[in-house]
């Protein structure tokens, strides 16, 4: 046995281990044009071209063949044709690169071990090579991303072919890519699903190989697939199970997406067809596809389909603060009162710890320094929850105020505007503590920072509601990312990302995609609270001295002082 660390930077990527453990689902789409694509929110002008890996080098030994094979996985064109050149003919036909992706720390951390010493390669006819990876995350066959840190070994079997060259005869399905280059090869696409009331759309981010036009990829994934298991209890799709794509292509002409469906679509009613069209149109737009409408057809005949009305997102109202005894929106040095609630908030004669304002500005959930939570409306102040140890409350878009004690994560309650409490079942069953909780703008998801064992996790769960919109229970917990220091704030940034303020001693802001990777940046010194927004650029942070900070490129800029409370808005 000979062992060495693969120290040279691999030019590409490919196969893997954990892929053996990945569940079989809808499959990573590999049809359509494979070229460059867009990340979430990126413009076409920002796209980099994909790197191209080379095929096998003549005379390469078993370890070099495995290294080259892993390299070639980064070249996705022609269904990973370059990577298949490293395989024996029999394996070329059966290997399934689209079975999943294993993402490791980097090429320099990979350890290769061969069963044949370097000085005996010329005489050997077969060899086994083990690759040990330091995993970060995996992407399953349906394109769903999940953190999966840990060591992951896998075996490759190789044989010398008739021409004297070594080729791989046994390898796991799927590819492996190092974390720094993952986003150069794959893009995240937010598939859209309806909430339980058919009134809002909820994103479910999936990762597929980068393409200039991902129309076919996301349409296949939406129509032929299903929501992620953790999200499933809170969402639904308009596409019936027996309706599928009739052609493996979606053509776009003059911003009209032509979608051919199988014959069962002919018998669908207008409401279902309209929901289908709305769901697919919004998915294509979220994926960066320039479309004005979707047109369905069966056997060449167009199906008439309208669109359904969705709940409008409220206008971005800017930053809400309590400053010098005045509560409202701050612009420059001026704070403008919010009609109906500002007067009630400033009339409170006790110190205020947090304020969360409803989507329609009709009321606010206010927590005082003693921990008690109140609902403030026009001419009314009602106590909701006085349990000891409450964390900051969170309003949802249905008008319910969520409260929970830090030491009792399972004791979540949702309070209606009528001051009636509704216990929320199945809340964080494995957690021993909770520090932060925020409901998303669609009301179908709730994020939290919880302690499980000795670990702190940022997690999400689906919100299950009854027909009247009352939250009654949470779905299974989806772990998003592990954090190494206490969190002091949690916020939503748009519909796909979370912002977490961590480590009071050396504050940082973690910007984390729900179903994707994250990024960390330094926060202003002394940062103590955070408020979300529709975009990353709208994020606001307050320091211990009352300074209000906003993003200014890659740095933070002080934009106001004297802030007593940085308020939040429901869903952010």
UniProtKB/TrEMBL annotation:
Superkingdom classification of source: Bacteria
Transit peptide recorded as keyword: no
InterPro entries, A to Z: GerMN, LpqB_C, LpqB_N
Chain ranges of the Lipoprotein LpqB C-terminal domain: 329-562
Pfam families (UniProt xref): Germane, Gmad1, LpqB_N
Protein known as: LpqB family beta-propeller domain-containing protein
Domain Lipoprotein LpqB N-terminal: 55-182
Domain called GerMN: residue spans: 200-304
Coiled coil location: none
Signal peptide per UniProt: 1-26
Keywords: Signal
